[in-house]
Write a structure and sequence with these properties.
Helices cover about 45% and strands about 15% of the residues. It is an alpha+beta fold and about 200 residues long.
């Protein structure tokens, strides 16, 4: 069975897309970021929770503060990417559940009254949303460079608060010269899928 999605779109989103390590200096606008979010906000999560928070790092001062927390190999590309986003999980996401999941508004108190339960759910569902965000960046014709080579606790203290857990930093822009490493191998279908 073939996929319904056009092959060119499949290539754009998956087969030809890679983590970018260099970018042109073409700006990424707020309108582009809003269009990305307005697409990917429909990705599924448990109870329709929406714990992902996106902090856009635009000013030179903020960029300098962020770069000091990046692993050495990620500092130069983070310094020069047109836009950098800090993706974090809001551990107080449950406050929005009565609005976001009106079919079962009691979920807020029934499942998420305790902080450890919220942190686990926020981490998982914000990670799902982060993956949707990366695909959305690709759908906008841009490249993403997601990185976890970063002092996440330092980023939390510098940019967030105790209710937010940083997950990754993502460089965003048009790919520049030498943006790609060679394509790495992937596991085959029969190495991943088991039928029982």
């Amino acid at each position: 069975m073939s996929l319904v999605l056009d092959p060119a779109a499949q290539d754009l989103l998956f087969r030809e897309a890679r983590t970018a390590n260099a970018f042109t200096d073409e700006p990424v606008t707020d309108e582009q970021v809003q269009a990305i979010y307005d697409l990917v906000k429909y990705g599924p999560t448990a109870f329709n929770q929406t714990p992902l928070r996106i902090t856009l790092v635009r000013s030179p001062e903020a960029r300098e503060r962020l770069v000091q927390h990046m692993a050495e190999g990620n500092q130069a590309k983070t310094s020069t990417a047109p836009l950098v986003a800090i993706l974090s999980a809001d551990n107080e996401f449950h406050e929005e559940l009565p609005t976001l999941f009106p079919a079962f508004p009691q979920a807020k108190d029934l499942f998420f009254s305790e902080r450890p339960a919220r942190e686990g759910a926020a981490a998982l569902n914000a990670a799902l949303q982060a993956a949707y965000f990366i695909i959305g960046v690709r759908a906008a014709g841009l490249a993403a460079g997601p990185m976890t080579g970063v002092d996440l606790e330092g980023v939390r203290k510098e940019f967030l608060d105790d209710d937010h857990t940083p997950l990754m930093v993502v460089n965003i822009g048009k790919p520049g010269e030498g943006a790609w490493y060679p394509r790495s191998p992937r596991l085959a279908y029969d190495e991943v899928v088991t039928t029982v």
